Amino acid sequence: MANISTNEFKGGLKIMLDGEPCTIMENEYVKPGKGQAFNRVKIRKLISGKVLEKTFRSGETVESADVVDTELAYLYTDGEFYHFMNNETFEQIAADEKAVGDNVKWLVENDVCTITLWNGSPITVTPPNFVELEITETDPGLKGDTAGTGGKPATLSTGAVVRVPLFVQTGEVIKVDTRSGEYASRAQK
Amino acid sequence: MTDSTWQPTSSHQARLARATLLRRVRQFFDERDVLEVETPLLSHGTVTDVYLDAFATQFDGGGGQPATPLFLQTSPEYAMKRLLCAQSGPIYQICKAFRHEGEGRWHNPEFTMLEWYRPGFDHQALMDEVDALLQVCLDTPGATRHAYQALFLHYLNIDPLTADKSVLIDALDRHSIDIDSPQSLSTDSLLQLLFGAVIEPQIGHNAPAFVYGFPASQAALARLNSDDPRTADRFELYYQGAELANGFFELSDASEQQQRFRQDNAQRNTLNLPERPVDHHLLDALKSGLPSCAGVALGLDRLLMIQLGASHIHDVLNFPLSRA
């Protein structure tokens, strides 16, 4: 793999650190007038999701990471793997449970997800910002309460549990923000 | 799509502010009988500082003459000191300086510097004058002053003049500064890392902060303090996250200067950096006698950034390096 100098550091650059692919979130060049130059860098590890700060000597090199994002549609799971397809080339890729992680509860058939590949293998699966899912179970709620104050838990078809307003009922399809896991609205018919 | 990189990165407001700032600076020195001077940007000699890298070029003599290596100045210090040795009296200069180093929020390889020298001043008297200039140009409150040693004791509980590397490396750990093989860094680099990450964010928020009494190993061109020769009569100015200025009670001893140049080049050798040609004109001038004086260099682009609340140096430069 190619080496990258700290001079090329910028937000979004993918590098290897402790054997794990990482993305650079922020890079600050620090150089006292009479002293040695450093790069103070904020880094997110792509597999563990851990965010950390690291200081490099300016001019030193690190290994670059072969990491690319692809947009793939979710097809199905066979219980062990989750299968995705490129809608243009029809090429399929299987991601394991580790790559999907907690996002399994936001996987909706035909939704286009961002699959991050490291050396060609999926390491993370990011669902769309909003997904539409059917409520399979929620308390009927109080009649007459339309303001939706307080809310109640609702179980969705994928097993996800979100807080919804009292007026939303079992069988309805709702829109959920996958980044916060919060109810956004009833789905547009 | 049209490429828009021909356009300046600064606003017209920034250009107006720069013109006003330059006018005020000139008026300030005019009122104090400090003479504006010009010296060459291209020079045969250059600085030997281990962590200052000058742009190099060459002059092709023509007619089969060998080409002469030349350097773009990293500051006008040496040439201005030669003027002082030639009895110029107090002088100032507004010029471009060039440093072959990285780009960043506070850094462009070509930048504008204000540098001035005051015969008869020591570093404390010069800090008074820098403070006065800031109050005139930026309307700042009066500056605070801090001894380097006192800051380390206060914020890190470390005496920077006696601490060995293991103590400094422990402090890096305690403040979550994660860097590979810190043992290979010099004591001065460790001190600078701690200063930048732990102390700098704490000082110079409301009023400009002067820091003086740097360790003798970071004296650069300052004389050593007569009461405590473990420290140098050098100061730096910090304000709102920027290192704004660096000043010295100037070293005038030619042989000590020559020795520091030699040490720099020796250290350059151990770090596999090229040796730099020593500026013999400066050494000859110092031998003829530099009047006792203090001098300071101040980054005008950074001053303008603070004045305008700019977050990046590009906002106050018409054409930063990428568009130059």
Automatic annotation (TrEMBL), chain A:
GO molecular function: translation elongation factor activity
Gene3D superfamilies from the UniProt entry: 2.30.30.30, Nucleic acid-binding proteins
Keyword Mitochondrion in record: no
Pathway stated in the Swiss-Prot or TrEMBL entry: Protein biosynthesis; polypeptide chain elongation
Cellular compartment(s): Cytoplasm
Database matches in SUPFAM superfamilies: Nucleic acid-binding proteins, Translation proteins SH3-like domain
Family: Belongs to the elongation factor P family.
Name used for this protein in its record: Elongation factor P
From TrEMBL, chain B:
GO CC entries: cytosol
Domain Aminoacyl-transfer RNA synthetases class-II family profile: 21-320
PANTHER family membership: ELONGATION FACTOR P--(R)-BETA-LYSINE LIGASE, LYSYL-TRNA SYNTHETASE
Keywords of the record: ATP-binding, Elongation factor, Ligase, Nucleotide-binding, Protein biosynthesis
Subunit (UniProt): Homodimer.
Gene: epmA
Protein biosynthesis in keyword set: yes
Pfam families per record: tRNA-synt_2 (PF00152)
A GO molecular-function descriptor: translation elongation factor activity
Protein name as it appears in the record: Elongation factor P--(R)-beta-lysine ligase
Phylogenetic lineage: Bacteria, Pseudomonadati, Pseudomonadota, Gammaproteobacteria, Alteromonadales
InterPro entries named among the record's database cross-references: Aa-tRNA-synt_II, aa-tRNA-synth_II, aa-tRNA-synth_II/BPL/LPL, EpmA, Lys-tRNA-synth_II_C
Highest taxon, organism lineage: Bacteria
Catalysed reaction equations from the record: D-beta-lysine + L-lysyl-[protein] + ATP = N(6)-((3R)-3,6-diaminohexanoyl)-L-lysyl-[protein] + AMP + diphosphate + H(+)
Organism of origin: Alteromonas halophila
A GO BP entry: lysyl-tRNA aminoacylation
Chain coiled-coil ranges: none
